[in-house]
Structure formats: C-alpha cells, structure tokens
Amino acid sequence: MSVLLKSFQYKAWANKRTLEAIKRIDSSEFPSTISFVKQQLNHMIIVEELFKARLMGVESPHKTTNTTTLPSLDQLERRIETSDAWYYSYASQLQDQHEELVTFQFVDGLQGSMSRAEILFHIINHGTYHRGAIGHALDLCSVAHPADTYTVFIHAAEPDRRLAR
C-alpha cells in the first residue's frame, strides 16, 4: 500500500480518536470550548469539501471557509467520516494523474493551482493542524487528548513493527 493511502487511513483514524475525545468534554462546564471545537471541525470539513469540488472540477459548495452558524457535533462527525471515505477512495483510484495541475479560485477570489498530489497532501496536513488545536482545547478542559501521530497509528495498525529485528 502506498504511503498516500496509509496517510488517508491515518487521517480517518486520527479524526475518529479526536471526535471520541471531544464527546468527553463537559459541554455545560465548557460551552466556549465546544464552540471552538465545532468551529475548528467545521472549517476543516469545509476546506475538504472545497478541495473535493476542485478535484472533481465542479462548482464550489461554499463561499467561505467557515460559517457563523455551526452544525452539531453529530453532523460534523458524519461529514468528516464521509469525507475521509471519499478521499481514501479518490486516492486509491488516482493512477498517473498525481502531477496533473488543478486550477481553481480560492474563496478569497485569488487564483490558485496545485497538483492533485499536492491537494491530497494539503488535506492530510490541514487536518493535522486543526486536530492539534483541538488537542490543546481538550487539555484545557482536562480531557485527555489521544495520541494521534502517524507513528502511533502505524504501530497500532501493524503491531509486528514493534517486534525487535
């Protein structure tokens, strides 16, 4: 399996662990943290949906990279799971188009172009950044945030790698 596909498996695994940790936040004690977490997740999924549209060559589904009204955590979780599955499927079917340039317009009106591989890397990296911010918010609420690094994932997915050689 390619490192790209493993990276999308990792992304889905890390998202799931983060979403499970978020559910342990006491929303009555930490309502502003819940709002912050929802804002981060909402932004994360909107960016994924924007880049999905760009990869597919269809009209942008969003005019901004966040919204003033935030979806529920359940809605965000479903959208993230759907996006994770779509990106894994897309990456698994991408054959010799990795370096093909995709031109598009960012929501701020500026033009951009990235290769399909660069877009996929951006999606993986972007989620990592926002899960880190959520991890800090979890710490402030005394909710243990999950170790979600690639090294933890790969050794959980392939425990034989822990064996001495």
UniProtKB/TrEMBL annotation:
Key word Calcium present: no
Pfam families reported for this sequence: DinB (PF05163)
InterPro entries the record matches: DinB, DinB/YfiT-like
Keyword Hydrolase: no
UniProt keywords, alphabetically: Metal-binding
UniProt record similarity statement: Belongs to the DinB family.
Protein name: DinB family protein
Species assigned in the record: Crenobacter oryzisoli
